[in-house]
Amino acid sequence: MLLGQVQTDKKSNEITAIPELLKLLSIQGCIVTIDAMGCQKSIAKAIVASEADYVLNLKANHPHLHGEVASWFEACQASEQAQPAHSHYLECASTNNHGRIERREHWLMEVPEHLKRATKYWTNLQTIAMVRRQRQVGEKTSDETHYYLSSLPLSAGAQSVAKAIRSHWAVENELHWSLDVSFREDACKVRRDEGPANLACLRRLALTQLKRETSLKASLKSKRCRAGWDPTYMLKVLDIDVLSI
């Protein structure tokens, strides 16, 4: 469900908009996940100030820290000596419709001593995480590794971090994909003034209502058509009691 949105300035990007969006939301006790662009010290500070935790995707936009974290995990796994305190979680999934098999391994460790100086300005940073994904489709296999910074303690466990990371992709799969396929948002030709922002808001409201209406077992596109053809069903989607009007 979309809870809020902030339009970025024409000469800016998401880095400046995310703190403004966080001010609009009550996120106390939540875990906030953000793509690599949002992996910023100021954003981590804003999340902690709102009494929430974060799991931020660490990529090459922080080349030194990314390299240090990657090297640390590699060294730990290559060492035959006792491993540092850590939490491990293995998740396997198969998608029969596409013949796809996925294997995801998650490691969670406390920030090592030699990295504490490099990470001292990351507010409440307690752990680093590594996720290794292996995907097999037919005879083709692909591997990728991602790293994360988190304010969660080691006691939270790798499974809780895995759940947060996995849930993050619901934003793409259940929101952006639906808007593009069911509402053809990317094909919209409205470009001027406040039109794009207003239509974006209306599409997201419509998407939320269509998902909440479960009496009709059909695709979002079919439910949109039904609402256009049948005023009674449209009122049901809008959650309006016919007797009240």
Commentary on this structure:
39% of the residues lie in helices and 22% in strands. It has 245 residues and is an alpha+beta fold. It folds into 2 domains: 14-168, no CATH class; 175-244, no CATH class. The longest helix is centred in the C-terminal third of the chain and has 18 residues, at 195-212. It starts with 13 loop residues before the first helix and ends in an 8-residue tail after the last helix. The mean pLDDT is 86.
Short description:
The chain has helices spanning 14-24, 41-49, 63-78, 158-168, 170-183, 195-212, 220-229, 231-237; strands at residues 31-34, 53-58, 86-95, 100-110, 127-137, 140-150.
List the helices and strands and how they pair.
Blueprint: H1 14-24, E1 31-34, H2 41-49, E2 53-58, H3 63-78, E3 86-95, E4 100-110, E5 127-137, E6 140-150, H4 158-168, H5 170-183, H6 195-212, H7 220-229, H8 231-237
Parallel strand pairs: 1-2
Antiparallel strand pairs: 2-6, 3-4, 4-5, 5-6
Helix pairs in contact: 1-2, 7-8
Observed structural traits:
245 residues; alpha+beta; 6-stranded mixed sheet; 8 helices; 39% helix
The termini sit apart by 28 Å
Largest sheet: 6 strands, mixed
Spell out the helices and strands N to C. HEHEHEEEEHHHHH
Tell me the number of strands.
Answer: 6
Could you say which overall geometry the principal axes of the C-alpha atoms support? globular
Radius of gyration, in Å, reads 22 Å
Beta content comes to 15-25%
Total domain units: 2
Output mean pLDDT: 86
**Parts with pLDDT < 50 across at least 5 consecutive residues:** none
Largest sheet: spatial strand order? 1-2-6-5-4-3
Percent of residues in helices: 25-40%
- Number of helices, counting only DSSP H or I runs of 4 residues or more: 8
Helix-strand category: alpha+beta
